[in-house]
Amino acid sequence: MEVLSVVSSVFGARCTVVVADDRSCVVVDPGVGVTAEVVAYVRANGLTPVAVLATHGHVDHTWDAAELCAALDVPLHVHAADEHRLHDPFGTLGPLGSASHAPSGPLGQAIAAAGLDPAAYAMPADVRTFGSTDGTGRDDDVELQLGATRIVARHAPGHTEGSTLYLLEIDGEPVAFTGDVLFAGTIGRTDLPGGDDARMATTLQEVCGALDPATVVVPGHGPTTDIATELARNPYL
Question: Which fold has domain 2-233?
Fold first, then answer.
């Protein structure tokens, strides 16, 4: 497999292209302004895109979903409990976004500083959800067979109700795309709408902490790490 990471200028959100041996590819977290680089990479390498995945519904991870999905002609997959954020990306962020649909908060300002119009956000045309919408408990794993890539979507609420880890093997090594649940040395915030300290604590113990220590962690922001390192050094684990 091949992996390409594209880091957005807005909040340093990481977008990743995972390329399988059959040259199909999956894109994780289409953040702000990543479409051109991702599409150029796909075309230059003769790849066959099969899906775009969102670890959660915050707009710094989904801003380019509509444009990128249209360019690649693939759907966006997201947990059902986070789908509502795609319809109101700024209003569902509380103080980070705005108090209403108007993108007046820090994230809207960061998008504007990147030369984009925050009001130009578009909803992806084809959104496919998995999991429960009721926002309680934790859903069972969902297996996604995307081209030659088998990905396990593991519900990991706490940062948002529908936060998801995407688990797969890359060249025989276990890899977890953790979004804003787990970072190198820290964790995602729980003070935004949908965040929950207790659910995050359970996720960290029963989901993240239970992964194979050899698992490579690819977070939504910041450097990669692994579960063994986080178990040893991350105070939240």
Answer: Metallo-beta-lactamase; Chain A (3.60.15)
**Collapsed DSSP state (helix, strand, coil) of residue 65:** helix
Secondary structure (3-state) at 109: helix
For 130-142, write each residue's pLDDT tens digit.
998 876 778 999 9
Question: Mean pLDDT for the chain?
Answer: 94
CA distance 49 to 72: 6
Q: What 3-state DSSP class applies to 64?
A: coil
H/E stretch holding 44: helix 35-44
3-class SS of residue 106: helix
* Pairing between β-strand 76-79 and β-strand 127-130 as defined by DSSP bridges: parallel
CA 218 to chain CA centroid, Å, is 10
Q: pTM for this one?
A: 0.95
